[in-house]
Amino acid sequence: MQVQVNGKTRQVQREDELLLWVLRDELGLTGTHYGCGIGICGSCTVLVDGQVTRSCLTPVASVAGKAVTTLEGLAKVGRGGVVTLHPVQQAFVENPLQCGWCLPGHVLSAVALLDANPAPTPEQIDDSAGINLCRCGGYNNVRKAVARAAELKRGSL
């Protein structure tokens, strides 16, 4: 079967597998992490048609015909290999987390939030961040990063 991952059509051999394992093991996209395996921690978060999705619970067959975005699909590579980070990635570089295991969930949840609401309130940022567990307690930096990403996306550097 074929799936759309980060804007490219990819051939998938293991049609009965969970999306997480296809992304990591078959497609080599290891930015999506295995955390709890039951959809609670958010380390396995990807976007499916722009919606936050736990890849550890999602059969790959269910994303056929849909656009899957992983952490690797956010930055753009231009001429000469110049990489331009997505505003959310840039904001997390400026406000790093301690270990980063939860980073895929926080980054992709922030992308979905800011795509739907370019100027979220602090409460909306907390609600978005709260669906992902940070075992290091880095929620203050998550809040700062999402607020900064909103500024970057609006062009008010």
Which structural category do the helix and sheet elements fall into?
Answer: alpha+beta
Molecular shape: globular
Helix content bin: 25-40%
For this structure, the quaternary state is single chain
Q: How big is the Rg?
A: 15 Å
Major sheet summary line? 5 strands, mixed
Number of helices: 5
> For the residues shown, what is the average pLDDT?
95
Low-confidence stretches: none
Q: Kindly estimate the percentage of residues that lie in beta strands according to DSSP.
A: 5-15%
What's the SSE pattern? EEHEEEEEHHHH
Give the spatial strand order of the biggest sheet: 2-1-5-3-4
Distance between the termini: 43 Å
Q: Say how many strands there are.
A: 7
Please render the helix and strand layout as text:
Blueprint: E1 2-5, E2 8-11, H1 19-26, E3 45-48, E4 51-54, E5 67-69, E6 76-77, E7 83-84, H2 87-94, H3 103-116, H4 122-129, H5 139-154
Helix pairs in contact: 2-5, 3-4, 3-5, 4-5
Give me some keywords for this one.
globular; alpha+beta; 157 residues; 15% strand
Short description:
The protein has 157 residues and is an alpha+beta fold. The chain has helices at 19-26, 87-94, 103-116, 122-129, 139-154; strands at residues 2-5, 8-11, 45-48, 51-54, 67-69, 76-77, 83-84.
Detailed description of the structure:
The protein is an alpha+beta fold and 157 residues long. 34% of the residues lie in helices and 15% in strands. It contains five helices and seven strands. The strands form two sheets. It has a five-stranded mixed beta sheet with strand order 2-1-5-3-4, covered by helices on one side. Strands 6-7 form a two-stranded antiparallel ribbon. A hairpin with a 2-residue loop joins β1 and β2. α3 packs across α4, α3 packs parallel to α5 and α4 packs across α5. The longest helix is centred in the C-terminal third of the chain and has 16 residues. The radius of gyration is 15 Å and the shape is globular. The termini are far apart. The mean pLDDT is 95.
